[in-house]
Amino acid sequence: MATMTDAAEVAMNGDGAVPLASEAPPGVAAAAEGEAFPPDVVFRVEVLNCYYGSHRAVRDVTMDISEREITAIIGPSGCGKTTVLRCFNRMNDLIEGARATGTLLFRGVDLYDPRVDPVEVRRRVGMVFQKPNPFPKSVFDNVAYGPRIAGSVPKSELPDVVEASLRRAALFDEVKDRLKDSAIGLSGGQQQRLCIARAIATSPDVLLMDEPCSALDPISTAHIEELMHNLKEEYTIVIVTHNMQQAARISDRTAFFTADVDAESNSRYGVLVEFDDTEKIFSNPSDERTENYVTGRFG
Amino acid sequence: MRLGRVFDDRTRRVVTSEVYRRSRDVRGGVFRVLLQIALLVALLVLAILLVDTVTDGWSILDGRLRDFLAGGLRSQSGDPELGVFQGIRGSLWIAVFVIVLAFPLGIGAAIYLEEYAPKSRLTSFIDLNIRNLAGVPSVVYGLLGLAIFVRGLEDLTGGQSVTAAGITLAVLVLPIVIITSSEAIRAVPQSLREAGYGAGATKWEVIRTQVLPYAAPGILTGTLLSLSRAIGEAAPLILVGAVTGFLGGQSGLVDISQLQERFTALPIVITEWVQESGRDRGFAPAAAAAIVVMLVVVLLLNSAAILLRNHFEKKR
After folding, report:
1. Domain range enclosing B129
2. A133 vs chain B: nearest CA distance in angstroms?
């Protein structure tokens, strides 16, 4: 419970009527008007559309991401998996011309409300990237980065937070003697686990992972998958993966996206085809396109 | 077995004849030699220049270096007080102006252009113009300095002073500082920025803790090269009114009061003495010695740049 964020606590208190701050935060009121926001839903996506400039890259995505589950997003290249994932922590804001319409509720709060500060969102929704991208600093400074800039941890407690994060990322034993060494000297798999440690050091509510194993060898991949399995107990994880076996192995629920071609403009856009329990997606999908994809007949 | 071995031998012979061929990369070899010649020519010219200058100026460098470094501009080459002190003083003050004005302004403009400015037609227009400005002949900057800093802002600069010269040269190298700093900032991997944002950093925090430390060595190299350029410029200084003849007064190196007075600088001293050597042969070794002094000053600045860069590179 100690790692839970304010937003999570609000959700755990029941119906989202308890405000984050003294005044009612954006989105909560809207959710409270209709029905109580379900406490086990972390993200509620309703008719989400993502644009790059005038190009509508992702169309009408609707899905719920549940708490303490691993949700996998699979699909062929160019189907908008990563675009959707990067909406969950407003990372697309960094891309010029990118915008989103529709509703994206995080614990009942509309993430795209103009009053929302993306920096605060990213402190609650951590991210691990495709290519390991440790800072060119020491191992310790990498993990301490988030807590330091957030000012959330007193300086004296930083070593404890760093150690706890590294332990949770199953990396501490390998690096405990070289916390002061540059993170660039670590192997690819270690770097990626360091990035996970860095992401959980700010005690986020959710971890977003964008193909976290695509640059890693099978042993490192197995490490990370095992790690995700353990992290699931405390965090909600959304992972984009190209590897269907990986999705089948680790996730509880799977969303299958595919790319359609717009007949008028002849441009490609992503759509959510099917979203269900992973077991069902891989054994008995209800959509033919999903079946073709997971059985390897397409994509 | 035996048959197999015969077959193997034959295969090996064929493969051998194919892969044992001597390298046929004749063009590559010629190209390599041409490149080496290019490097050699450059080094040779530099070496000849250095040896020639040092030999020419040796009588002074060896004989009266101390007096030469302490002396000033004189009309006779035989004057025992002839020396480059005023030149060094002027050049160092110009360096101070460039460091204080051009570096923060240039680096700041580069950070804004790369990190904050929206990618619009206006910004690419501005970018293009900065690049053009960097190619404008220095004489033009001299005219600008004369019109604005010497005449327009006379109350502030004291007219034909080292202040006006310093500001002029700061403006001269400003585009170069902006361009080199922009390149250094552009070379920062996007993944590093994303890592910062992903960890919950604000834009300012990402720039301060990731972008600038990573770009620092590149920014430093570019800016200090531009400093060398500023110190070597003569043409704009002549227009701004650097003194070429006799310059009295022997105020100290860091005496602020001289900032609004007439001044000279090392490249001016050199140009002047080379011209004078036609009338008075004695100025030739003085000019050579002054060149050596200027080279040493520039070299010292560059060494400082390299040391600083290595320091930052270790940190990143």
Report:
1. 87-263
2. 6
Does some domain include residue B192?
A: yes
Mutate to test the interface with A, among B115, B191, B212 (most CBs of A within 10 A): B191
> What is residue B13's DSSP assignment?
H
Q: Could you tell me if residue B44 is inside a domain?
A: no
The ipTM of this complex is 0.83
Is B138 in the A-facing interface, judged by CB distances under 8 Å? no
Chain A hits for B118, CB-CB cut-off 8 Å, are: 96
A6-294 folds as: Rossmann fold (3.40.50)
> Could you tell me the CATH number of the domain that includes residue B147?
1.10.3720.10
The DSSP code for A129 is -
Q: Is B204 on the interface with A (CB under 8 A)?
A: no
A136 and chain B in contact, CB less than 8 A = yes
B193 lies in some domain: yes
Do the domain assignments include residue B41? no
Query: Nearest-CA distance from A149 to chain B in Å?
Result: 7
Dump pLDDT digits (tens) for B53-103. 999 888 888 878 888 888 777 777 777 778 888 888 888 888 888 999 999
> For chain B, how many structural domains are there in total?
1
Q: Answer yes or no: are the C-beta atoms of A192 and A128 closer than 8 Å.
A: yes
pTM listed for this prediction: 0.80
Is residue A231 within 8 A of residue A222, CB to CB? The reply is no
